[in-house]
């Protein structure tokens, strides 16, 4: 079996697949990639199914080597791959066995996919990693020297050079109205304000600082929540839930970021400005369908 | 108030049954979640009095999803109690940092507080917040325990805690705002077990003082 050896792991890189949806009712977060569309783009570029696993890199640069030639691709805003020469990101590269593969750039979340996928064993029905509860095939940040098994190749060198054009973010994020929007005295303040991404953001959520929001009627009974929900704790600073979010929450939810834009929120760096505007649910579905078409165009 | 269906983004609906903690309401939410999942439309997350119904928006339209949700809501009318609950004993050492504050606020001695917490079974309503965290309600009405104004950054695994009429065992180290009465060695979540969460909705927790 082909293996991938980690040479320099970054800070908190993990194995992720599409997510672990089967244990939400046991309180287990979905996990999966923080930027699902970037993850899927990497998978498509190497011919993988979206259900296969790839590496989510936090803290570039990242270096690794394969013991056999394989098609690889890295995605994430501003990410590039260096093997024999530097190649822009979001482009498939045929890596030789033994050569060093470096993923560079400054993306908060970068994805490295290898044709055949990371064939590590499933845990609770998924290969995703949830670090806080140490769930996953390697339930800790990846470390130098780790050897990851790679599944049978899905395609070969003839697919090298495939590429996808990623959206250029402009800091404007689409949301639909949240289930508790009516409880907010100032829901409009969320839409008219500019927020800055807090240092304390992580895979659980992107924390925002800006106009503070207040809900009337005090605490709510806990409800099931999902990635994209903009919840507002007592302090009034909104949090956009990401892949490692708690399965239930007792804070009112003012808005829900559309799936097509959630990766843009996850990728925003501390200090970066974000503003939000409301669209209808139908627009949110249309936006997602557009992203899907962009990915489908990769299939060669 | 009749149940409300509320949009929750493009891929989910929140069905709010009521706004109160009641075993029959929570059991209905769990029942609706089972039915939704058995239709194969997506996953569901029941809580005290609501259920989040999720689907793939590229595979199912919002109108169809809403129709299916209304169908499930209509067919789950009436009282469906939790079935097959077990009694789970939780051996507890009542040595938690908040036991004296809670006793004081409740007008009880620590001994009386322990007796109040151990003298009845507590129904598990749903699992949420973190892997294996079972929300149990119906604690002795004398116990006064509002959430901490400022949550602790680390509550140790096994902490037995109370807040706002509820009690729970923290499955792992976690930030938390509930008041800690004691701790147990019982492992309530283990990712390598076939059924990782020890406590299921409908079970009853019986705390036993060590």
The major sheet of chain A is characterized as: 7 strands, mixed, barrel
The count of β-strands of chain B is 13
Distance between the termini of chain B: 44 Å
Write the CATH homologous superfamily of the largest domain in chain B.
Cyclophilin-like
Q: Supply the helix-strand structural class of chain A.
A: alpha+beta
**What letter string, H or E per element, gives the SSE order of chain B?**
EEHEEHEHHEEEEEEEE
Name some characteristics of this structure.
A: 300 residues, six-stranded antiparallel sheet, 4 helices, globular, B: 210 residues, Gyrase A, domain 2, 2 domains, seven-stranded mixed sheet, 13 strands
Written overview of the protein:
The complex is a heterodimer of chains A (300) and B (210). Chain A is α+β, with helices and mostly antiparallel strands. Chain A has helices at residues 36-45, 187-192, 259-267, 281-296; strands spanning 2-8, 14-16, 54-57, 62-66, 70-75, 80-82, 86-88, 93-95, 100-104, 110-114, 147-150, 172-177, 195-197, 205-209, 223-224, 229-231, 239-241, 248-249, 253-257, 273-278. A seven-stranded mixed barrel of chain A has the order 12-19-16-17-14-13-20. In chain A, strands 7-6-9-4-1-11 form a six-stranded antiparallel sheet, with no helix packed on it. The longest helix of chain A is centred in the last third of the chain and has 16 residues, at 281-296. The model of chain A has no long low-confidence stretch (mean pLDDT 94). In chain B, strand 3 and strand 4 form a beta hairpin. In chain B, strands 5-13-6-7-10-9-12 form a seven-stranded mixed sheet. Chain B has two domains: 4-75, Gyrase A, domain 2 (2-Layer Sandwich); 87-209, Beta Barrel (Cyclophilin). The N and C termini of chain B lie far apart (44 Å). Chain B has helices at residues 23-38, 62-75, 99-106, 110-118, and strands at residues 4-7, 12-16, 44-46, 50-54, 87-92, 122-127, 134-137, 152-155, 159-163, 166-169, 174-176, 179-183, 204-209. The mean pLDDT of chain B is 94.
């Amino acid at each position: 079996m082909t293996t991938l050896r980690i040479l320099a792991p970054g800070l908190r890189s993990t194995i992720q697949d599409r997510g672990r949806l089967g244990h939400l009712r046991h309180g287990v977060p979905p996990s999966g990639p923080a930027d699902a569309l970037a993850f899927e783009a990497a998978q498509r570029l190497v011919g993988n199914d979206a259900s296969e696993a790839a590496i989510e890199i936090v803290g570039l640069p990242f270096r690794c080597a394969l013991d056999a030639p394989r098609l690889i691709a890295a995605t994430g805003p501003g990410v590039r791959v260096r093997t024999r020469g530097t190649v822009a990101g979001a482009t498939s590269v045929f890596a030789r066995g033994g050569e060093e593969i470096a993923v560079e750039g400054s993306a908060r979340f970068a994805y490295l996919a290898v044709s055949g996928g990371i064939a590590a064993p499933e845990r609770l029905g998924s290969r995703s990693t949830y670090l806080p509860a140490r769930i996953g095939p390697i339930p800790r940040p990846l470390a130098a020297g780790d050897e990851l098994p790679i599944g049978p190749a899905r395609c070969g060198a003839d697919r090298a050079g495939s590429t996808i054009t990623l959206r250029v973010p402009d800091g404007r994020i689409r949301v639909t109205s949240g289930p508790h929007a009516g409880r907010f005295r100032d829901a409009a303040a969320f839409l008219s304000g500019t927020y800055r991404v807090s240092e304390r953001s992580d895979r659980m959520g992107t924390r925002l600082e800006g106009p503070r929001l207040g809900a009337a009627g005090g605490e709510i009974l806990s409800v099931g929540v999902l990635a994209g929900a903009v919840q507002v704790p007592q302090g009034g600073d909104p949090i956009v839930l990401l892949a490692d979010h708690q399965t239930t929450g007792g804070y009112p939810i003012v808005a829900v970021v559309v799936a097509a834009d959630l990766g843009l929120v996850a990728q925003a760096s501390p200090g970066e400005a974000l503003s939000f505007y409301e669209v209808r649910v139908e627009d949110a579905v249309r936006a997602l369908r557009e992203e899907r078409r962009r990915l489908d165009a990769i299939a060669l | 108030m009749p149940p409300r269906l509320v949009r929750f983004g493009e891929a989910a609906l929140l069905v709010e049954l009521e706004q109160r903690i009641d075993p029959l309401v929570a059991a209905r939410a769990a029942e609706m979640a089972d039915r939704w999942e058995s239709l194969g439309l997506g996953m569901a997350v029941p809580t005290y009095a609501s259920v989040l119904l999720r689907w793939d928006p590229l595979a199912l339209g919002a109108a169809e999803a809403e129709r299916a949700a209304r169908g499930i809501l209509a067919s789950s009318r009436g009282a469906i109690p939790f079935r097959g609950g077990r009694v789970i004993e939780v051996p507890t050492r009542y040595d938690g940092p908040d036991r004296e504050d809670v006793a004081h606020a409740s007008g009880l001695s620590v001994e009386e507080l322990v007796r109040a917490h151990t003298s009845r079974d507590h129904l598990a309503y749903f699992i949420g917040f973190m892997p294996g965290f079972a929300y149990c309600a119906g604690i002795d009405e004398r116990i006064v325990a509002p959430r901490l104004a400022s949550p602790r950054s680390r509550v140790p695994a096994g902490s037995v805690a109370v807040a706002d009429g509820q009690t729970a065992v923290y499955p792992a180290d976690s930030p938390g705002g509930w008041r800690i009465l004691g701790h147990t060695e019982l492992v309530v979540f283990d990712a390598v077990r076939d059924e990782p969460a020890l406590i299921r909705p409908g079970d009853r927790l019986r705390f036993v003082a060590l």
